[in-house]
Write a structure and sequence with these properties.
- Helix 2 (82-98) runs antiparallel to helix 3.
- The protein has helices spanning 7-20, 82-98, 105-118, 150-170, 173-178, 197-200, 207-211, 219-237, 257-265, 270-282, and strands at 24-29, 32-40, 54-60, 71-78, 139-141, 147-149.
- The protein has three domains: 7-118, Ubiquitin Conjugating Enzyme; 139-211, 2-Layer Sandwich (Herpes Virus-1), CATH 3.30.40.10; 219-317, no CATH class.
- By secondary structure, it is of the alpha+beta class.
- The protein has a four-stranded antiparallel β-sheet with strand order 1-2-3-4.
- It starts with 6 loop residues before the first helix and ends in a 46-residue tail after the last helix.
- It has ten helices and six strands, in the order H-E-E-E-E-H-H-E-E-H-H-H-H-H-H-H.
- The protein binds zinc ion (2 copies).
- One zinc ion is lined by residues 142, 144, 146, 186, 188-189, 191.
């Protein structure tokens, strides 16, 4: 490894910084460029609003670069499906071979940009309604490059704000004062977003949701419902464990001293507890959304163990709920 920096590398890095400016990050080790990182967008002139996809390119320079290939990694793909990623990756491999002995970063950026420009439409589904994006759909790209039908995102944000408000009102006054203000977040990555809900909600519903055949409860679906309901009942009875014949401890932990006390004084009551819970389930208590996010949707049974975003918080920790330590 020579300490004198290869001129080809110095020139390339200088050019990258001059052309891409703030859009490229050069990480150096002892003043020697080591990692080059840039987010690649499709070519849309200066119209950033029309860029629906992007990907982060990371090039780690090897000591003998450019006579040896650098290590190239693609990260944070947005709006790109696996097939396109595979295509881009294999094109990159070929390009690295073709360009051995000469700087390759600009070539890589160009190669990726061409692919993105050709596929500058979100692929995959709207994660809210699970329908795809078709001609005529009105959709939005968030700041984090996730895509949703405008109609769906509006409903999601409205529901999110309502939920926040409901949870806030349950808190004592002094906690309400200290609670962080409501912040819209992306349903995929939870990055903060700022969307005009009033504009979004004027968008028509997804085209596919309108043209889809009416829902029909087939025998197959009914069987699946029964299977899922049984799994859910087992999950609830075991305190949140999904699976058949689980023997391990429940994944929810005890969070309050009183709960521990109950546990200690009722050390052998787990069977009784399960019986009590099973009974509660059998009573067909009102259903909320799923417990622990693992439940089957639409199951007619079960009171959720917990339905908020604060994972790790255990409602069973509150004494007196759900018959913990109930009569034997
Ligand atoms: Zn949607
Ligand atoms: Zn996002």
């Amino acid at each position: 490894m020579s300490t004198a920096l290869d001129e080809r590398v110095t020139d390339e890095v200088e050019a990258l910084e001059a052309i891409l400016m703030d859009d490229v990050v050069i990480k150096r080790v002892n003043d020697v460029p080591n990692i080059i990182e840039t987010v690649v967008h499709p070519s849309t002139g200066d119209d950033v609003d029309q860029q629906f996809v992007c990907i982060t390119l990371e090039v780690k320079l090897t000591p003998d670069y450019p006579d040896c290939s650098p290590e190239v990694t693609l990260r944070n793909p947005r709006g790109l499906d696996d097939q396109l990623l595979t295509t881009i990756n294999s094109q990159i491999k070929q390009k690295l071979l073709d360009c051995l002995g000469q700087p390759v970063v600009f070539e890589l950026i160009e190669l990726i940009r061409e692919n993105l420009t050709e596929s500058n439409l979100p692929s995959g589904q709207c994660v809210i309604c699970l329908y795809g994006f078709v001609d005529g759909d009105v959709f939005i790209k968030t700041q984090c490059y996730h895509h949703f039908h405008s109609h769906c995102l509006a409903n999601h944000l409205i529901a999110g704000k309502k939920y926040y408000q409901e949870e806030l009102e349950k808190l004592p006054n002094w906690q309400q004062m200290q609670a962080p203000p409501y912040q819209q977040t992306c349903p995929v990555c939870r990055c903060p977003v700022s969307c005009d809900v009033d504009v979004l909600k004027n968008a028509p519903p997804p085209v596919d949701s309108v043209t889809a055949p009416p829902f029909c409860l087939t025998a197959e679906l009914k069987a699946l419902q029964l299977k899922m309901a049984a799994l859910l009942a087992q999950q609830v009875a075991k305190g949140g464990v999904v699976g058949v014949g689980d023997t391990g401890p429940p994944p929810l932990t005890i969070t309050s001293p009183s709960d521990q006390d109950n546990e200690a004084t009722n050390g052998s009551s787990s069977v009784a507890q399960e019986g009590a819970k099973a009974e509660a389930i059998g009573n067909g208590r009102p259903n909320g959304s799923g417990s622990n996010d693992n439940s089957s949707p639409g199951s007619p049974h079960s009171r959720p163990v917990y339905r908020g975003p604060y994972r790790g918080f255990n409602r069973r920790g509150k004494p007196g709920r759900r018959g913990r330590g109930g009569p034997r």
